[in-house]
């Protein structure tokens, strides 16, 4: 059986969690919180890891390809408006942490999938038939963009799967570098995971380039809507792992 979050899993289930999926995600949540809890406690006291990630934002590659341009245009139309800078920050955080760890990845795949990972949460993109998990909408859009702009079948699938996997709580590099970085970027921007591993000056530069506005409350509301509409989804399941609190207590002003 396909593992939870994979494209194969999504094709089988449309995002409806099976009992074994819930167990796997619960385990991922425990591991993630165990790894992050020390820094959530120590970081506010001024204690950080020794080797912080830092990067001049002008060195971050921004793909200038037809697929990237199409993704940028679609991303710019997303509403609520806070999803747009969130998507750009996702790519930047992912790139900063990937560069810090010397990981090799496809920048175009990471960029396109980062910009469209929350397309399924945007107003006007939830037309019937709506999948149980909103990630399927963005994944389908990325595949269409990739197919129209010369992506190989494997590359288009990698971009799509980065989106369906980003809602998992722990994504190892061995399970896909782009998916791992995408999940890392989204978790940092939404709940502050790995926030304390980045140099404060780099954090400030990112927030100046793509300011945050109403992100915490916005995600609380969007996930509440998803949980109500799709009680079998990951968004609904994460309520039991304290997703609302994690959003609200992320180490950002808003």
Task: Please give a structural write-up.
With 254 residues, this protein is mostly helical. The protein has one domain. The protein has twelve helices and no strands. α3 (66-76) packs parallel to α5 (107-116), α6 runs antiparallel to α7 and α7 (153-165) packs parallel to α8 (177-191). The protein is globular and about 50 Å long. The model has no long low-confidence stretch (mean pLDDT 95).
Care to count the β-strands?
0
Radius of gyration: 17 Å
Please indicate the count of domains: 1
**Separation, N- and C-terminal Cα atoms:** 40 Å
Chain-wise SSE layout:
Elements: H1 7-13, H2 19-42, H3 66-76, H4 83-100, H5 107-116, H6 135-148, H7 153-165, H8 177-191, H9 200-209, H10 215-229, H11 234-237, H12 243-248
Structure summary:
The protein is mostly helical.
Write out key terms for the chains shown.
254 residues; mainly alpha
């Amino acid at each position: 059986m396909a593992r939870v979050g994979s494209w194969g899993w999504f094709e089988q289930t449309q995002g409806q969690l099976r009992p074994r999926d819930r167990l796997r995600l619960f385990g991922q949540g425990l591991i993630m919180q165990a790894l992050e809890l020390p820094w959530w406690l120590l970081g506010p006291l001024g204690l950080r890891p020794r080797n912080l990630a830092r990067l001049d934002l002008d060195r971050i590659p921004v793909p200038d390809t037809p697929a990237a341009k199409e993704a940028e245009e679609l991303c710019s139309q997303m509403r609520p408006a806070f999803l747009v800078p969130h998507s750009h920050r996702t790519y930047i955080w992912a790139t900063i942490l990937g560069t810090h760890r010397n990981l090799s990845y496809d920048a175009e795949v990471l960029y396109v999938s980062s910009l469209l990972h929350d397309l399924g949460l945007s107003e006007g993109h939830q037309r019937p038939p709506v999948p149980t998990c909103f990630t399927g909408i963005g994944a389908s859009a990325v595949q269409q963009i990739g197919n129209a702009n010369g992506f190989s079948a494997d590359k288009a699938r990698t971009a799509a799967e980065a989106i369906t996997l980003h809602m998992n709580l722990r994504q190892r590099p061995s399970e896909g570098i782009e998916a791992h970085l995408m999940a890392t970027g989204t978790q940092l921007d939404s709940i502050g995971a790995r926030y304390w591993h980045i140099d404060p000056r780099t954090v400030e530069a990112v927030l100046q380039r793509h300011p945050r506005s109403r992100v915490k409350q916005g995600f609380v509301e969007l996930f509440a809507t998803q949980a109500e509409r799709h009680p079998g989804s990951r968004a609904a399941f994460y309520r039991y792992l304290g997703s609302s609190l994690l959003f609200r207590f992320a180490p950002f002003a808003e």
